[in-house]
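Entry 14. Structure prediction run on the chain below.
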Amino acid sequence: MALTGEPVHFEYFSIALSCWYEVFAYRTAPRQFAVTYMDITKRKRDEEALREGEKRMNRAQEIAHLGSWELDLINNRLSWSDEVYRIFGIQPQEFSATYEAFLEAVHPDDRAAVDAAYSSSLSEGKDNYETEHRVVRKSNGEIRIVHEKCEHIRDGSGRIIRSVGMVHDITKHKQAEKSLEERTLQLEEINRELESFGYSVSHDLRAPLRAIDGYTRMILKREGDKFDEETLSKFSVIRNNAQMMGRLIDDLLAFSRLGRKNMTTSSLNMDDLIRDIWKELQIITLDRNMILTLRSIPPGYGDRALIKQVYFNLLSNAVKFTKGRDAAYIEVGGYVDENEDVYYVKDNGAGFDMKYYDKLFGVFQRLHSSDEYEGTGVGLAIVQRIVHRHGGRVWAEGKENEGAAFYFTLPRESR
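Output returned:
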């Protein structure tokens, strides 16, 4: 026999046909015998592989907190995997391996409901059973929450003879859910308080701002001809700042309301929305040479008023940042991309440096001074918030003095 360095397993056969005895007359002791051997190396390797597979499965169940079980209904014998024992806090030698022993581990307040659910699944001939309940660990009295699911196995006549299932310890998941719910309630309360505060502040601030602007206007009307140019200029600054503060308050209130505004979604004709907005902008910029190019735009799906606000803000920005051009070229279009529709507004205006991109959609973040371009720095933040509420994305591309392009998406699966 060649020696390969690998162990060879032999098995002896003790049956009579495996041994031959040569017996001479008047002698009873065997002179010779033969023994047969069987190489069971493959079988041993298979057994080892099976043991390793069971170890890996047990380890996987332990990591996932997911155990398996099987109940023989004919003999009322229940078998658990190692992880089920860990979840229930029971040692194998402490478990009588019966359905009744399982029920004893269920929390007393859940026991009747669990028993009723499982029993009814059998009596009603259902193919499966599923429940969520608490268990009390025998080892330390700790309460765990488990999700349990099984399928019923039938014999050839259709009778249910066995149940095979799983137990998943979802305690941490439930604790996280509860913590998230509590946090959500806290945030909702904070938002309500902030909204109430915002309304209060806006009312308290608007009154003095209106007074400042109003009294300044009255002084200029009555005594304006007595002031020199420097004084008149200072009065103009006062009025402009008061009016800008009023617009800022309005924008902030609009931004805060977006999170609580109920949305009414429907199919949208984007061409009609854009044309309506463009007419409004042309009325307030009669002295401008502006050329709008309307490309093919896919229909949208969303809240009409909110999406109109998105386009109004983007087109207003395009008009504002092209004021230094002899002719403002603004292009609006869109295209279909996988599960969403993409819309864009491009212009040949001032553009922006992409290294400041992170500031673009922030509240009060401005990439140009207010002396160059008026505004409160809230418009793009409103655009982003509306698009995110619709489940879409928003981004921009630009280059200084070479224009900018703003994009947003709307999901299509809602239609």
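Residues 145 and 354 are 51 Å apart (CA to CA).
Filed with the rest of this week's runs.
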